[in-house]
Write a structure and sequence with these properties.
This protein is α+β, with helices and mostly antiparallel strands. It has three helices and 30 strands. Helix 2 runs antiparallel to helix 3. The protein is globular.
Length: about 400
């Protein structure tokens, strides 16, 4: 059996995949060196790039006033440069192996793990009795999942794919997010009408902030980590929390039952979906003011922005579609059919693929976020709530 395969079986899932890519990179490097050696007339491969500088008894060309290089050696040297760039690119691709998508399944009590390289479920992780909101640590080693009936935050070791601990929260926790610096995990608690802040360094709840809106669902950090926007199911506004001051400092009027929230990466605008009025509200963050309203499909709820900030995506629960917004014009540019009751979503770091949890189809739709079309559907557990990618 291949030595690499044997070693990979002993590694964590992510480490094993990277190890296999590096193994392929070494093979590609060996093949490329062989081709260069053949083209240069050397006839056999070498273990390093030093062969490119070996003398060869053929016609020479002047490269400077003090040195000469044989034609085959010159060719080899040039090919060596291309080889170096090629291998570097291969190594980079190994380091940037396709991430995993994690999907909480409310009724199954599990997290489905999707390999975004081939869009297949590669694992199921037990995560409490009713997992809902979730967020991954910046280093990709820990997943934080709200467990609603147990009023707790479940910590999952992503290397081993097992529960590593729980943290007590307020009653009925739902949406979870992590600060841009990775120091805080925030969880909105519906019955407690509060947002709980957990220090990732200690794994303990440090403080909580009461919200004006009842039944807060999503609590999302701004890109600079200074503010947090909170939506509440029994409200018509978005609460603004100053994270440093640890208190609510404003409310921004939107439509009835605000749900999903997403900031554009530059932090200038936020997008809030108000489910009962089928409208997305575009907020100027600095002015704390709605600057535009966009009519979407019926029961809009989940919202996410592309990594480059060029597009914003909104799921429409009753219509079974996802609306795409051009963030430069603030206009809807397409509606993509997905499964039943699309909910919360996530997009890959390269901005190419969007993953949408279909709550009543027990599946995740995969969308080409560039071409704006569905390209696949992945079956997961019962009643998927959302997606996080890391």
């Amino acid at each position: 059996m291949d030595e690499c395969v044997q070693k990979c079986r002993l590694l964590s899932p992510r480490s094993a995949r990277i190890q296999r890519l590096r193994h392929r990179t070494r093979i590609c490097g060996f093949v490329l060196r062989s081709l260069v050696a053949q083209h240069s007339g050397l006839g056999y491969p070498f273990s390093s790039l030093g062969w490119a500088l070996l003398p060869y008894p053929e016609k020479t060309t002047q490269t400077s006033s003090t040195e000469t290089m044989t034609i085959p050696s010159l060719l080899a040297s040039r090919l060596a440069g291309s080889l170096t760039l090629t291998v570097a690119a291969l190594i980079s691709s190994a380091a940037l192996a396709a991430p995993f998508a994690y999907v909480p399944n409310e009724k199954s009590g599990t997290i489905s793990v999707i390999d975004t390289e081939n869009d297949t479920v590669v694992a199921e992780i037990k995560a409490g009795d009713k997992p809902r909101g979730l967020a991954a640590s910046i280093d990709g080693k820990t997943l934080y999942v709200s467990d609603q009936p147990n009023n707790s935050l479940v910590k999952i070791d992503l290397e081993q794919r097992v529960v590593s601990g729980t943290i007590d929260l307020g009653e009925s926790p739902e949406g979870v997010s992590i600060s841009p610096d990775g120091k805080w995990v925030a969880a909105a608690s519906e019955i407690s009408n509060s947002v709980n802040f957990i220090a990732t360094a200690t794994g303990r709840k440090t403080f909580a902030v009461k919200t004006r809106g009842k039944n807060p669902e999503h609590a999302v950090f701004s890109p600079d980590g200074k503010l947090m926007y909170v939506s509440a199911e029994e409200a018509d506004s978005v609460d603004v929390i100053d994270v440093t001051k640890r208190k609510q400092v404003a409310s921004i009027k939107v439509g009835n039952r605000p749900r999903g929230i997403a900031f554009r990466p530059d932090g200038k605008f936020a997008y809030v979906a108000s489910e009962l009025v089928n409208t997305v509200y575009v907020i100027d963050v600095a002015k704390r003011k709605v600057i535009k309203q966009l009519a979407t499909g019926n029961f809009c709820n989940g919202v996410t922005a592309s990594p480059d900030g060029s597009r914003v995506f909104v799921s429409n629960g009753k219509d079974g579609t996802v609306s795409a917004i051009d963030a430069s014009t603030q206009e809807i540019i397409g509606n993509i059919p997905v499964g039943k009751r699309p909910w919360n979503m996530a997009i890959t770091p390269d901005g190419k693929k969007l993953y949408v949890a279909n709550g009543r189809s027990n599946s995740v739709s995969v969308i080409d976020a560039v071409e704006l079309k569905a390209i696949g559907e992945v079956k997961v557990g019962e009643t998927p709530w959302g997606v996080v990618i890391r």
